[in-house]
Amino acid sequence: MHGLWTYMFSKTEFHVLILGIDKAGKTTFLEKLKTIYSISEGLPHDRIVPTVGLNIGRIEVANAKIVFWDLGGQPGLRSIWEKYYEEAHALIYLIDAACPSRFEDSKSALGEFCTFKLTSNSNYEANVKFAFPPEKALRHEDLQGAPLLILANKQDLPNAVSAEELDRYLDLKKLDERVYMFEAASGYDGRGIKESIEWLVGVMERSKRTEALRARSGYVPVPTS
Ligand SMILES: Nc1nc2c(ncn2[C@@H]2O[C@H](COP(=O)(O)OP(=O)(O)OP(=O)(O)O)[C@@H](O)[C@H]2O)c(=O)[nH]1
Ligand SMILES: [Mg+2]
Prior knowledge:
Blueprint: H1 2-9, E1 12-19, H2 26-37, E2 54-61, E3 64-71, E4 90-96, H3 103-111, H4 115-118, H5 122-131, H6 134-137, E5 148-153, H7 163-170, E6 180-184, H8 193-206, H9 208-216
The structure holds guanosine-5'-triphosphate (GTP) and magnesium ion.
């Protein structure tokens, strides 16, 4: 009886990794999420500093609890990202849409999702990087099947490019096995955030990766009949 009660009324917990290069706006976005979805206000923009460790944010939406992990995007900190891949149900990748001079860096950091773990031999790693363009790189085993939400962030700035333009630039069309979406957003005025979270919850609930993570954690659904 207790098992049935827990199954019917407990909310599923999802872990969502927020990545992107430094200054993409990840922490500002996380604080805005808190303001929108929880009773406590997130930090104001002027109190947010570059991230060195890990920021955690928790929200509840409909039948889901989401724990967000926001990591630092400075080049020297990106090697930490991989430690969080295995446990993540989905990824949000933020790009500063108003800063085209850093699109290339954003694109290659997205591609590097794959390359860290393939080998510890640096020569071989260089070959692998060459052989796997970013769209293949995202298929790295630790992130297999993880839904990907790419945000064209900072849309409140007049020179920000649209989500469609960013989509064309990154050219991830070949990622047909992975569920992904581009969305225009702003961590300042909050546009695109509700649509993004709604989409994420839907895809995470249906994803095979969620099933696999549940099975690994020993979660056994209680039969209802
Ligand atoms: N106009 C505008 N500025 C933003 C937005 N989001 C963040 N910023 C600004 O961009 C700068 C970087 O924001 P952060 O949230 O610290 O960026 P981050 O991606 O967490 O950076 P790291 O922690 O270094 O990886 C700050 O000056 C923010 O105020 C946004 O949506 N619009
Ligand atoms: Mg940060």
